[in-house]
């Protein structure tokens, strides 16, 4: 997958910018505060409709502007597609080849992105919500139906919680209707569990060797921790376990007005042997763990989509010593379009520089483009 060109209007600190990219490595460099990370962020927003840095879309609109717009041509190995996203204070519009798209799920699969950036440490240090959000984003890129199932689950979850809270107030409950809502929730949740467990399993096929190659530390893995106690990941077994545990928690849920278990309470851990990196890992180990996670996803995307994702690396090389840089290089191959930001070209390995397109940013403008 290749992003061939990009046009930005009123995005962050950019007024207007149009540029083209190499299908291989693109290095975006300049001093801090010039707009390197914002350019990378615009690529992410174009592909995924949301920022990885801000949950509030209005923050993406340039000061004193009424809207922000990003567009670009993406080639998936078979055909070009022009993607466009327009962000206004109270709405967002998506287009593919000039046609408006109303379902986000139909848009997300067109441009697949994996990003690594300094704040990624929150994947380990942050709350389970951060990790669930990340898992949902990755799965939504690969499986068009995942986002629909997730949205359905969240709607039914809200409905079930409202029934529980209403019972707290009125002491009235339509048991038949409540049972139907609960079974529907379990059905949607079961599908999410199957998607998530399979994804983590695929990640673990690659991540152990990647982490060892970068850190020279063995026995690294991701552990999926569903809030439902699941022993066998088969549809009927998950459904029955989910229902059994909800029934067991019924009295507690009536009192609290909250659905106590389900995919909305899931988590996953980064482990070296039996040690959770959140509690026992150094910052270097944690950073390399997240980087290994991202790199382990590359072959998963290739397997499902028959094309590599676009790789965004925000200032990653400044955090690595020469040993780790060289080990990282083996995963940046010519078939993967890669964007790297840096304040210093000297921090980039010469092997990468020789195949890269270099884009220098000053004051939110491209002042130099060079094919090395």
Oligomer: single chain
Largest β-sheet summary: 6 strands, antiparallel
* Number of helical stretches of at least 4 residues: 12
- Could you state the order of secondary-structure elements as H and E? EEEHEEEEHEHHHHEHHEEHHEHEHEE
Helix content: 40-55%
Q: Which term fits the overall shape?
A: globular
The largest sheet has its strands arranged as 2-1-4-5-6-7
The CATH topology of the largest domain comes to: Rossmann fold
Rg for CA atoms: 22 Å
Q: What is the count of structural domains? A: 2
What is the residue-averaged pLDDT?
92
**CATH class descriptor name of the largest domain:** Alpha Beta
Q: Which architecture of the largest domain does the CATH hierarchy give at level 2?
A: 3-Layer(aba) Sandwich
Find the structural class using helix and strand composition: alpha/beta
Separation of termini?
22 Å
Strand proportion: 15-25%
Q: What name goes with the CATH superfamily of the largest domain? A: P-loop containing nucleotide triphosphate hydrolases
Stretches where pLDDT falls below 50 for ≥5 residues? none
Number of strands: 15
């Amino acid at each position: 997958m290749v992003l061939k060109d990009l046009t930005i209007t009123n995005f962050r600190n950019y007024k207007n910018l149009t540029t083209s990219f190499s299908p291989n490595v693109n290095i975006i460099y300049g001093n801090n505060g010039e707009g390197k990370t914002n350019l990378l962020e615009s690529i992410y927003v174009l592909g995924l409709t949301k920022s990885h840095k801000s949950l509030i879309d209005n923050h993406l609109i340039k000061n004193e502007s009424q809207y922000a717009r990003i567009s670009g041509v993406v080639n998936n190995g078979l055909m070009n597609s022009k993607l466009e996203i327009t962000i206004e204070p109270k709405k967002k519009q998506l287009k593919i080849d000039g046609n408006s798209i109303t379902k986000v799920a139909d848009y997300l699969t067109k441009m697949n992105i994996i990003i690594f950036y300094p704040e990624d440490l929150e994947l380990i240090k942050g709350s389970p919500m951060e990790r669930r959000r990340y898992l949902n984003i990755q799965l939504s890129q690969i499986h068009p139906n995942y986002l629909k199932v997730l949205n359905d689950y969240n709607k039914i979850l809200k409905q079930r919680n409202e029934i529980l809270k209403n019972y707290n107030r009125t002491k009235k409950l339509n048991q038949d209707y409540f049972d139907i809502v609960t079974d529907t929730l379990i059905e949607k949740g079961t599908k999410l569990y199957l998607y998530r467990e399979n994804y983590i399993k695929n990640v673990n096929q690659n991540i152990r060797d990647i982490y060892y190659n970068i850190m020279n530390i063995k026995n690294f893995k991701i552990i999926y921790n569903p809030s439902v106690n699941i022993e066998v990941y088969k549809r009927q077994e998950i459904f029955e376990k989910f229902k059994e545990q909800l029934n067991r928690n019924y009295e507690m849920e009536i009192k609290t007005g909250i659905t106590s278990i389900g995919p909305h309470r899931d988590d996953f851990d980064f482990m070296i042997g039996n040690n959770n990196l959140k509690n026992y890992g150094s910052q270097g180990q944690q950073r390399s763990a997240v980087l290994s996670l991202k790199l382990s996803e590359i072959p998963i995307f290739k397997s499902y989509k028959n094309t590599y994702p676009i790789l965004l690396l925000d200032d990653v090389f400044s955090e690595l010593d020469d040993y780790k840089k060289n080990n990282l290089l083996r995963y940046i191959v010519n078939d993967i379009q890669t964007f790297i930001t840096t304040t210093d070209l000297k921090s980039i390995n010469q092997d990468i520089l020789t195949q890269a397109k270099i884009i220098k940013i000053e004051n939110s403008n491209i002042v130099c483009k060079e094919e090395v």
